[in-house]
């Protein structure tokens, strides 16, 4: 399927476990931006979409709530000002902004929901700060509970972050420049660091949902690396099949043998896209379906080939 | 009591006021007054069922009670709560009563304060009049004392003058004493202090006497200083002091320079002689034993020791001389530019002369090292030598010894390589096993396996494989910073290719190696491009006047890579270019396409240009950005340029641009367009990629106003 506007943000609707649903945010400076709510019917092979208007500005990053399927956060560029803000939205038909977390001093980059949904915490990354919010759904307001900064020479900028779904969700990992850092959110202190994880900028990382110390990362040096956070000196495995920047890496939630960095995975190469692919995500409903989004606004919903599927299962 | 009750009622009413915000504020103030810390009082617990907590929710609490407790317990709870409420009620009443009392006493205090202030005001007025009287008196007193003060000032002036005169009269005696005590510096200081005055009042007979005396003494002093200066044993510090004093006494600086340098020369010559002796020793020449004390010097040193010796002896001495010379002569002669230049020239001549000798020695020594010794020591020695030379350069900025030093180092390296080649040859030919006069060499069953197995497999192949694995190691190191330079990688890749091309089929594919060297080269360019796009504030940039420096740098780098790769690889196939494909016509066609697009925008600005780009994409074939690289110059460069431009594109898409930011990108891409086509196999490709960059920039631009193509042309011409 195709949108008219360029797009960069993609997320699966995490709280939805019955249907294959994805959310796509468009990125256009001058035209009105939209959030597309895409419903893929597996049996009929039909795609339905709902469009919500996102008036605030172009969307750089999106994340759907793990508790309430109607909640999502967006990080957007405030119109005509080049300021990055984060906002929390509720998804009924009228689609209204319930509140926005204005961090005027920082440029909000990512907002991530607590992975298991048992607490109402939100994690935000802004410039060189990690922020934790406590969300009160009733009064639809969020309170800043903790924050910490990253100090080093130059002006470090976080490129991405991820909750660790293990250890009762008390750890997060962030990446800046070519290092990966692990943090304990109870004390907000750094617990481990992988220096020079990649030759150049680290673009994305993800935790293995089934093995508690395993972490995947990708970067501008065209490599995908797998790490054990207990031993940060050597990667477990390096994949260098890519020929340009690797923008995103995601573990499949059900079968950790699979991961799908964009452009071309290890399992299979997907070449439907004409423009750069910036985001991929697995569906939370069907473990064999994932979506990828390219800059020209084309969303492709892919299915793991049957042969591969049986190879993994059997 | 009645009054108190009414007050209490009003208070209660107030508490039930509608505005919850005001209520909280008042609560806060009350709490502050009674010293209750808000945080400790239940603020710590978030339990909504804590009846004393700040987060207490009655409905939840009630629900919980009803759910959890039995009827009797509920009854108990109720009575307990009722008694508690009663107790609280009476507490509140007492509080209100106390407050009332305090209020009344406060009113009393305020009234009393009012009276007191009145009294205080009167007293202040009185104080002011008194102060005025005091000021007047003090003015009177200072007026009467004025005359006396002037007299005192005059007297003290006379006293000062007399003191000075006394100093002058005592000067000759004092100078003598100073010279006797060998404190020359204080003597000079005294003399310089008095010199001007003596000179001024020369015509008075008494002063003239003093002047003559002083001059005589100073003459003596000069003689002494010169003697000390010429003495061989005096330390550099003493020397420096001497020169300092002599200069203060206005001795001619030039002569001093000369003398100083010749003196220093003696010392340094000794160091050089030591080096010379070492070399002779190394060459095995006989040297007559001079004295027993120098016996330890006659044992030959290895190269590292030799260089150490040279550094510590010769170089540090010469550095010391230069530093003290700088201090003494160069940094102070500012008043006379000419003299300064002469002094500097003298120093440079002196140093150059000595350095040539030193280099000569070092070179001879290094050449001696050609046949023996192991590499690590030699390399360490050369490294130390080179580092010390760089320190020298810092000290004397006008000269450049490092070039000569590097020459020596590179010559040594060349010698080394030559030596290895030689020894390799020797090893080959030294296979005396095959010599015909050895009897077992003739036996065929020995000869066959020896030739194929031992020589071929064991020697040649093993050697080549070793080379190959070394190459690979080099390439693996690319991830870490500061490993092998790209030029070396290129050469190695060529070497492997040549091996592959010849009959040696043992080698695996050299493609991997090439791939690695290729990534290595492009990394530099890419990071530069990325940083340049990311760090700039494109939204508020000014109107473009120039091509950005980083673009020029990219072109320069590309040209350099082109030259390097061109030396090693064949030209490679190029797509047919139209015969008159000059830069002119090309830029013309480019600007033409720009104009077309611009026209479209002007015509219907509301149409999103994605339509345009899509149509364009339909017609232009899809670009394989990551196609495999072949072994040819054009192919390698095309690969590099394609990836660079792709990076540029991705960076641009991450930013937001203002009007001038867009125009700057236009200028930059046009500039790239003008220069990049000559490197690639298919110039269309560059054009498409650059067009895409501009398109993406337009997408990411708040105020897309394109620049006139003619203006772009002009700017690029100028750049």
Task: Give a structural overview.
The complex is a heterodimer of chains A (314) and B (719). Chain A contains one helix and 23 strands. Chain A is globular. Chain A has one domain: 7 Propeller (Methylamine Dehydrogenase, Chain H). In chain A, strand 11 and strand 12 form a beta hairpin. In chain A, the strands form six sheets. In chain A, strands 1-2-3-4 form a four-stranded antiparallel sheet, with no helix packed on it. In chain A, strands 5-6-7-8 form a four-stranded antiparallel sheet, with no helix packed on it. Helices cover 3% and strands 48% of the residues of chain A. Chain A is mostly beta strands and 314 residues long. The relative contact order of chain A is 0.12. With 719 residues, chain B is an all-alpha fold. Chain B folds into four domains: 142 residues, no CATH class; 85 residues, no CATH class; 170 residues; 170 residues, no CATH class. In chain B, helix 8 packs parallel to helix 10, helix 12 packs antiparallel against helix 13 and helix 21 packs across helix 23. The longest helix of chain B is centred in the first third of the chain and has 110 residues. Chain B is flat and about 115 Å long. The N terminus of chain B is likely disordered. Classes of the chains: A mainly beta (314), B mainly alpha (719). At the A-B interface, loops of A face helix 16, helix 19 and helix 20 of B. Chain A: InterPro entries: Beta-prop_EIPR1-like, EIPR1, WD40/YVTN_repeat-like_dom_sf, WD40_repeat_CS, WD40_repeat_dom_sf, WD40_rpt. Chain A: Keywords: Repeat, WD repeat. Chain A: This is EIPR1-like beta-propeller domain-containing protein. Chain A: Belongs to the WD repeat EIPR1 family. Chain A: Pfam families: Beta-prop_EIPR1 (PF23609), WD40 (PF00400). Chain B: This is Vacuolar protein sorting-associated protein 51 homolog.
């Amino acid at each position: 399927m195709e949108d008219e506007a360029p797009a960069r943000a993609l997320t699966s609707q995490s709280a939805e476990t019955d249907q294959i649903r994805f959310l796509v945010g468009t990125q256009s400076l001058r035209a009105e931006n939209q959030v597309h709510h895409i419903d893929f019917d597996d049996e009929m092979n039909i795609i339905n979409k709902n469009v919500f208007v996102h008036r605030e500005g172009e969307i750089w990053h999106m994340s759907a709530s793990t508790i309430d399927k109607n909640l999502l956060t967006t990080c957007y560029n405030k119109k005509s000002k080049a300021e990055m803000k984060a906002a929390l939205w509720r998804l009924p038909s009228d689609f209204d902004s319930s509140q926005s977390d204005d961090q005027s001093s920082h440029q909000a980059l990512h907002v991530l929901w607590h992975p298991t949904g048992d607490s109402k915490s939100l994690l935000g990354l802004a410039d060189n700060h990690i922020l934790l919010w406590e969300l009160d759904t009733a009064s639809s307001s969020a309170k800043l509970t903790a924050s910490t900064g990253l100090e080093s020479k130059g002006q470090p900028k976080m490129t991405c972050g991820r909750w660790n779904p293990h250890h009762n969700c008390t750890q997060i990992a962030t990446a800046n420049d070519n290092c990966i850092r692990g943090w304990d959110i109870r004390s907000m202190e750094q617990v481990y660091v992988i220096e020079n994880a990649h030759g150049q900028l680290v673009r994305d990382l993800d935790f293995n949902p089934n093995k508690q110390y395993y972490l995947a990362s990708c970067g501008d040096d065209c490599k995908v690396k797998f790490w054990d956070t207990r031993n940060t000196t050597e990667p477990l495995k390096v994949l260098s099949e890519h020929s340009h920047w690797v923008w995103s890496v995601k573990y499949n939630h059900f079968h950790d043998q699979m991961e799908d960095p964009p452009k071309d995975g290890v399992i299979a190469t997907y070449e439907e896209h004409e423009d750069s692919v910036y985001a991929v995500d697995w569906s939370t409903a069907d473990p064999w379906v994932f979506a990828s989004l390219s800059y020209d606004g084309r969303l492709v919903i892919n299915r793991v080939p049957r042969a591969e599927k049986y190879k993994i299962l059997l | 009591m009645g009054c108190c009750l009414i007050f209490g009622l009003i208070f209660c009413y107030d508490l039930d006021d509608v505005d919850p915000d005001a209520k909280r504020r008042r609560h806060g103030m009350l709490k502050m007054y009674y010293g209750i810390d808000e945080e400790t009082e239940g603020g710590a617990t978030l339990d909504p069922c804590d009846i004393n907590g700040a987060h207490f929710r009655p409905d939840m609490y009630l629900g919980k009670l009803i759910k959890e407790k039995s009827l009797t317990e509920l009854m108990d709870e109720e009575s307990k709560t009722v008694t508690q409420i009663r107790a609280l009620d009476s507490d509140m009443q007492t509080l209100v009563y106390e407050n009332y009392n305090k209020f009344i006493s406060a009113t009393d205090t305020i009234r009393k304060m009012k009276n007191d202030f009145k009294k205080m005001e009167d007293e202040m007025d009185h104080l002011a009049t008194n102060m005025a009287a005091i000021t007047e008196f003090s003015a009177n007193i200072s007026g009467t004392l004025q005359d006396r003060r002037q007299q005192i000032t005059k007297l003290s002036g006379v006293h000062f003058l007399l003191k000075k005169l006394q100093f002058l009269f005592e000067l000759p005696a004092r100078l003598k004493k100073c010279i006797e005590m060998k404190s020359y510096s204080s003597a000079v200081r005294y003399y310089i202090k008095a010199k001007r005055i003596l000179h001024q009042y020369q015509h008075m007979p008494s002063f003239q006497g003093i002047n003559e005396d002083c001059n005589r003494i100073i003459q003596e002093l000069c003689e002494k200083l010169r003697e000390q200066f010429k003495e061989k044993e005096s330390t550099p510090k003493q020397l420096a002091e001497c020169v300092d004093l002599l200069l203060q006494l206005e001795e001619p600086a030039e002569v001093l320079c000369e003398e100083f340098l010749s003196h220093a020369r003696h010392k340094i010559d000794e160091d050089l002689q030591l080096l010379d002796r070492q070399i002779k020793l190394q060459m095995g020449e006989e040297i007559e034993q001079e004295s027993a004390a120098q016996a330890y010097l006659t044992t030959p040193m290895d190269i590292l020791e030799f260089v150490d010796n040279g550094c510590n002896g010769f170089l540090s001495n010469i550095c010391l001389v230069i530093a003290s010379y700088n201090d003494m002569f160069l940094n102070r002669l500012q008043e006379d530019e000419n003299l300064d230049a002469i002094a500097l020239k003298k120093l440079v001549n002196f140093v150059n002369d000595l350095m040539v000798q030193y280099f000569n020695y070092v070179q001879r020594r290094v050449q001696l090292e050609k046949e023996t010794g192991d590499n690590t020591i030699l390399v360490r020695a050369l490294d130390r030598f080179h580092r010390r030379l760089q320190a020298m350069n810092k000290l004397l900025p006008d000269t450049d010894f490092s070039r000569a030093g590097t020459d020596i180092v590179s010559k040594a390296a060349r010698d080394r390589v030559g030596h290895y080649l030689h020894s390799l040859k020797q090893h080959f030919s030294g296979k005396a096993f095959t010599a015909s006069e050895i009897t077992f060499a003739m036996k065929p069953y020995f000869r066959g396996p020896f030739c194929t197995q031992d020589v071929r497999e064991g020697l040649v192949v093993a050697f080549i494989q070793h080379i190959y694995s070394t190459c690979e190691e080099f390439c693996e190191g690319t991830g870490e910073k500061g490993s092998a330079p790209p030029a070396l990688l290129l050469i190695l890749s060529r070497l492997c290719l040549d091996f592959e091309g010849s009959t040696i089929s043992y080698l695996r594919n050299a493609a991997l190696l090439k791939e690695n060297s290729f990534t290595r080269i492009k990394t530099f360019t890419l990071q530069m491009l990325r940083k340049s796009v990311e760090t700039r504030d494109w939204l508020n940039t000014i109107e473009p006047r120039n091509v950005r420096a980083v673009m020029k740098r990219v072109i320069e780098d590309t040209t350099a890579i082109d030259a390097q790769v061109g030396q090693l690889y064949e030209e490679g196939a190029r797509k047919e270019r139209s015969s008159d494909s000059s830069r002119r016509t090309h830029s013309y066609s480019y600007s033409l396409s720009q104009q077309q697009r611009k026209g479209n925008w002007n015509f219907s600005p509301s149409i999103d240009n994605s339509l345009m780009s899509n149509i364009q994409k339909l017609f232009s074939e899809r670009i394989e950005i990551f196609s495999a690289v072949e072994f040819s110059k054009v192919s390698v460069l095309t690969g590099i340029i394609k990836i660079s431009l792709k990076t540029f594109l991705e960076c641009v898409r991450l930013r937001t641009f203002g009007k001038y930011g867009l125009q700057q990108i236009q200028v930059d891409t046009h500039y790239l367009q003008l220069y990049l086509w000559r490197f690639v196999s298919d110039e269309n490709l560059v054009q498409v990629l650059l067009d895409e960059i501009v398109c993406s920039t337009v997408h990411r631009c708040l105020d897309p106003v394109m620049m006139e193509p003619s203006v772009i042309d002009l700017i690029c011409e100028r750049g």
